[in-house]
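REQUEST ID: PR-0412
SUBMITTED BY: lab tech R.K.
PRIORITY: routine
TASK: structure prediction, single protein chain
INPUT:
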Amino acid sequence: MKAPTWNALAWLALYLASAAAAAQTAPRFSPPGELEPGSGRGVSDPNIYLRDIRFPIEQAPAFLNSQVWRKGGSQGPAGGQCDRANYSYPWRDNFCESRSWGMPLCPSGQGHQGQDIRPPTCEARTHWAVAAEAGKIVQVGKYSVSLQTPAGTVYRYLHLQMNALAVKRGDAVARGARIGRVSNDFDGAATTIHLHFDIKDSVRVGARSEVVFVPPYSSLRKAYERLLSGQP
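STATUS: complete
OUTPUT:
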């Protein structure tokens, strides 16, 4: 058998390096409800509550993981928020992460109300958050913007650059319209650079229907896969 030439070995090494890089950047997703260790009990709910939403960050990639229990967070390991580990796959759910908010759908009855999303790079006031559906801007707070659809679903966007929003209260917006740039605004203090995104909708809770925060993770995954594939 003829021994491989140097060129053949070099091409093989290049191919393997490229394959490894592709594997590192290819989207991977942890299961819904699988939170960062020690950050609380998640809800293993694979339901896609909103099947046709637009992913709320204008451009990929985006990275879903905890802002508190990852590097740079108050409960995270040593390191800064821009650490490469925070900007890599797999995604990690953090709905129901330990918080004091009342949350009927969380195992403990309390928890984080939505999902933290890091934009493509660790840069504030650069990457646009966009409307998940067509609707009306019904609230602009100190560090939050709320969009309500004609069906009554409410999407909240937190920690945008609040002094330079693309919308104001009362505006009608189209699906995919720019709302504001992802930043770290937090009522005079600074949080990490991320978008907190949550969904409030009417669902069955026990024997009755209630308007509550619903798990967004699976809906976001579906929307992200459409974004990556170029689907409208």
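NOTES: The chain has two helices and twelve strands.
REVIEWED BY: pending
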